[in-house]
Amino acid sequence: MGLRGRGPPLLLLLLLGLVVATALAADSASASEGDADPLYRACFEECQRTGTLKEDSVKHCIVPTDDQPADKAWYAHEPLYLQWKEWNCNSECRYHCMMEREQEREELGLGPVKYHGKWPLKRASVFQEPLSAALSALTLLVQFNGWLSFFLLLSYKLPLRPETHATYYEYTGLWHINALLAMNSWFWCAIYHSCDTAWTEKLYLSSAAAFLGYSLILVILRTSNLRDEASRVMVAAPILAFVTTHILYLNFYELDKGLNMKVCTVISVAQLLLWTVWAAITRHPSRLKVVFVAIGGVLSIYLEAHDVPPRWGYVDGHAICLAMAIPLSYLWWSFAKEDAEMRTAAIMKKKR
């Protein structure tokens, strides 16, 4: 009798266990098959040596015949607004040889393979992964809209404490910080998928790790209903220390993407487990939204762990995860607003 109505959360717990096991078992650091392809390597070496691909020249391999130094990367000759791409002879030869080899494989009925650790995705204008960049930008917009509506709700629609004009909702500041970190993460996600360079990759991974780490703090504080500052500091301090150490390791010691994926997976699964258990035992009016977001999170972790190959040159498993993040972000901020309304109403009722 006590489990009645809790079927979805309990089923979700089982799915989470399965997903985390497969995610941690996935070999994300395996060598790329495309790198070892002799035809690809021959194309790449020929392109670098001659600056041409079949009958077409690769402009980034042709240094202009002017007074500029010959050893200067081609992107340094471009306008400033284009130099951020850092496309040069090496990157252009990689891309064009990869696309040519994938076209040959497709004609032979073979599936795509990874090159230099990444799936072969087509460019569009200056965007290296146009679909992922667009979806990241849309999620950023949804995050901003959700945070703005949350801010307006608390500041102008819900009652404020008469003595301090602060909100009655005890987690207002936590959600504001969460919003800033979320928007920062999605901003760098959009930049990284527009232009994959060493510095954009580090900023993308670092901002994502910071956001996930803080989200773990938020879920622990909210589901445990911790309100005093001492308890919050005791929870936040070790998590902040771990996440900060992890970010410093990625930026200044080794950019280990395999390790980063495992760390982010463990943090994400821990969050989903806590929210799912909380939704199973609470009577919160918005608990179903939490369950739906958790289900979406499970699917995202599954797709990221299994690294679904691309289709049509633009859509891969990561792009599907980014598409799922748009409605999930909307649902999440809807839950945050309803949680603020519920907690404010409960506090006002006690004061009467």
Automatic annotation (TrEMBL):
The chain crosses the membrane at residues 131-156, 168-188, 203-221, 233-253, 259-281, 317-335. It comes from Triticum aestivum (Wheat). GO terms for molecular function: hydrolase activity, acting on ester bonds. It is a multi-pass membrane protein. It comes from the Eukaryota. The gene is LOC123093814. Residues 1-25 form the signal peptide. GO terms for cellular component: endoplasmic reticulum membrane; Golgi membrane. The keyword Cell membrane does not apply. The keyword Transmembrane helix applies. GO terms for biological process: GPI anchor biosynthetic process. This is Post-GPI attachment to proteins factor 3. It is found in: Golgi apparatus membrane. InterPro entries: Per1-like. Involved in the lipid remodeling steps of GPI-anchor maturation. Coiled coil: none annotated. Keywords: Golgi apparatus, GPI-anchor biosynthesis, Membrane, Signal, Transmembrane, Transmembrane helix. Belongs to the PGAP3 family.
